[in-house]
Amino acid sequence: MSETPAPPDPRPRWMTALALVCLVTVAFLVPRDLFSPDTRDVEVWFGFELRGTLALLTAPLLWIIFLIGAYGFWFQRRWILPTAAAYAFYVALSHLVWSEVSPKGHGWLVGLAQALVLSIPGVLLLRAFRIACVPVLLALAYRKYRAVPGYHTWSLKLGSVGRRISVPLLLLFDLAWPFRAAALFQLVCAIDELGITWLLTECRHDVPSVLHAMRIRRG
User: Which of 53, 110, 145, 204 could bridge to 106 as Cys pair (CB 3.0-4.6 Å)?
Assistant: First the structure.
């Protein structure tokens, strides 16, 4: 008698791994922040060191951040990928600032190198977020057309350029608003594609925007 195959785990292994990493980090941070005299009196936020009472009061915030991360990755919450990416870029920026302003830092060149390396997880998480959104849009289009369209919208191309420009501005010049705008613009890209799918009655390719879809529908 053949064995019944086990049902596949709907959670990707990398998300399970990140959830466990967050939990292990909390298990490491709590005793360190409470009982280690060398580290419990110092916390670093936005690259600046807090000492004494402020350090002790703000230490639990980091525990909460990683607990939220563990929850988000384990239960695959939609907000976890962009939130985790933003935190990765925050850590990268903090290393750049700390390396320049702290007496124990090694200057902005070393901080920049650290920031570039630490920003890689943020880029990968944003890419994963974009990939996670794509199947939803494709599934809606396929349900309607029984085919997969390739719209190649202007908004998607513009959003890609925005991401490539905003990340260096954030890391090099601490200019956050372009990155936030680029992240929010991804919602515009999704709405644009949803609008095209809703307007068109048949599958089409190379539809630059929802305005073009309106013109096509009018004939």
Answer: 110
